[in-house]
């Protein structure tokens, strides 16, 4: 199951470079993870300064 980004996201982009498959993109006022691209590695979780990313 892909990771998800909650409404706590501040759209800082810190997670973008941590994703090895480029599944994270800007979606309005926050970031979003493409479920069909995410490999569920969790690399983005530790890079988020507001803990907005979690396993779905």
UniProtKB/TrEMBL annotation:
Keyword set, alphabetical order: 4Fe-4S, Electron transport, Iron, Iron-sulfur, Metal-binding, Transport
InterPro entries hit by this protein: 4Fe4S_Fe-S-bd, 4Fe4S_Fe_S_CS, 7Fe_ferredoxin, PSI_iron-sulfur_center
Essential cofactor(s): [4Fe-4S] cluster
Alphabetized SUPFAM superfamilies for the sequence: 4Fe-4S ferredoxins (SSF54862)
Cellular component, GO, one term: cytoplasm
GO terms assigned for molecular function: 4 iron, 4 sulfur cluster binding; electron transfer activity; metal ion binding
Keyword Transmembrane tagged: no
Domain 4Fe-4S ferredoxin-type: 1-25, 29-56
Protein role: Ferredoxins are iron-sulfur proteins that transfer electrons in a wide variety of metabolic reactions.
Protein name: Ferredoxin
Species whose genome carries this gene: Geomonas limicola
Gene that produces this protein: frx-2
